[in-house]
Amino acid sequence: MMKELRKIVIPEFIFGFNSRKLIGSYAKNLGAEKVLIVTDEGVINSGWVKEITESLTEVDIDYHVFSDIFPNPRDIDVMVGADVFLAQDCNFIVAIGGGSPMDCAKGIAIVATNGGHIIDYEGVDSVPYPGPPLICIPTTSGTSADVSQFAIILNTMRLVKIAIISKKVVPDLALIDPELLTTMDDYLTACTGMDALTHAIEAYVSNASSSFTDLHALEAIRLVSNDLISLYRDRSNEEALSNMMLASLHAGIAFSNASLGGVHAMAHSLGGLFDLPHGECNSILLEHVIEHNFEFAKARYLNIAEAFGVKSPSKETLLEAIRGMRMTLGIKGQIDLRVKPDEIQKLAEFSLRDPCMVTNPKVMSKADVIQIFERVLCYESK
Ligand SMILES: [Fe+2]
């Protein structure tokens, strides 16, 4: 039962094969005259952007493609994108891609409307005015930026990812088409799928969880457990395509409204400092943060184990199941970076300042965070 007052934000979305083909008519209905398409080279090469531009042309909507985006989208990419949006006289944004183009598009929308620098909008509810209409079309099954209140941008001065959490960055519409997952490679499928699993687990044990977000989180965990490995092995499996896209959607609805925890706080810090894939960072950290939190949210973790299909749920069997999935997906348990002691200190400080840390079920001290980083990173003592 939801006893307390809760606010839940979920955008309009259309889920299903071929939903991407509705872009022209929806953009027209939402008042698009000139669209900035925010994407990256990989998505352009997969042919999806061409379909989008053709659909816009069919309904006489002009467009400009912006694809100068790094895999961990940088503040400078956002600032250039906002200049392009204004210089091209656009009034509408369509983001197509994984988390990077979608987060960058959210940043462009903020700066194009509110001015200033994207870093000024770090934190919770710091965006004064909503941006131009935004339609998101995800091409991975993990980030969920297409339904979330989150935008994650790399601060290039401090080399840390900042989180912008605001209702103003929720897209106006998401076209969620499982067919777009067919062009992911093996490692992207693995990392984004583990990101979705981490979203669901962290939302479920979050201090801000609710019965509404719990439902979505547990369903996402169940779907990932059933279908991620199938999708990893075969991207033509329609059931796995549909179920993993659905898993990402459920996990996104859960975490957007319940927030995240220690895994994401540490992953933002690690991925920002060393420019590593977000899902890889989460996959490596997840088991260690569960170990830290387990006794503090034991009943919740046992429910997670059950949803994951673990027989005889316990801390050990849950960790074993998650480790088994990570290894089957070819994701290592450690990163060989030869990290220096002062870098470990920096990683820990950034992690503790990340807004996701606030909702971790058990407080993490600087020593706790350092201990986990030392376990997962090859460490140089001098
Ligand atoms: Fe994530």
Provide a short characterization of the protein structure.
The chain has 382 residues and is of the alpha/beta class. It has helices at 23-29, 41-46, 48-58, 75-87, 99-114, 186-205, 211-233, 238-258, 262-274, 278-293, 298-307, 315-328, 341-353, 366-376, and strands spanning 12-15, 34-38, 62-66, 92-97, 123-124, 134-138, 150-155, 160-165, 173-176, 335-339, 377-379.
The third-level CATH topology of the largest domain is: Dehydroquinate synthase-like, alpha domain
CATH superfamily grouping of the largest domain:
Dehydroquinate synthase-like - alpha domain
Radius of gyration: 20 Å
Helix content: 40-55%
- How many helices does DSSP assign? 14
Domains (count): 2
Number of strand elements:
11
Oligomer: single chain
Major sheet attributes:
6 strands, parallel
Q: Could you list the spans in which at least 5 consecutive residues all have pLDDT below 50?
A: none
User: Structural class of the helices, strands and pairings?
Assistant: alpha/beta
CATH architecture grouping of the largest domain: Up-down Bundle
Strand content: 5-15%
Order of helices and strands: EHEHHEHEHEEEEEHHHHHHHEHHE
Q: Which ligands appear in the coordinates? A: fe (ii) ion
Mean pLDDT level: 95
**End-to-end CA span:** 53 Å
Q: What overall form do the CA principal axes indicate?
A: globular
Q: Quick one: CATH class of the largest domain?
A: Mainly Alpha
Biggest sheet, strands in spatial order? 1-9-6-4-2-3
